[in-house]
Amino acid sequence: MSYFDIFMGITLLEDIFGGLKDMATDPDTAKWFWGIIVALIVILSIALLIVSIV
Asked: From the CA atom positions of the chain, what is the Rg in Å?
């Protein structure tokens, strides 16, 4: 991989995390963003519990 590819990948990640930060801190979207995050954590926890029991 060239330095340009690495730079473009880092720039893309920076843009993605910048957008997530904006969504998480904007008063209009923060409620939905954190609701989705909590729902994903609950669903993944339940799935892990089910897999560990079975």
From this structure: 17
Per-residue pLDDT tens over the stretch 1-54: 688 888 888 999 999 999 989 989 988 889 999 999 999 999 999 999 999 998
DSSP symbol at 28: T
Polymer length in residues for the chain: 54
CA-to-CA separations, 11 to 14, 15, 24, in angstroms, rounded: 5, 6, 20
Distance between CA 1 and CA 38 in Å, rounded?
A: 37
**Please, which residues have CB within 8 angstroms of residue 34's CB and are 6 or more apart in sequence?**
24
Calpha distance 43→45 (Å, rounded): 5
Residue 27's SS3 state is coil
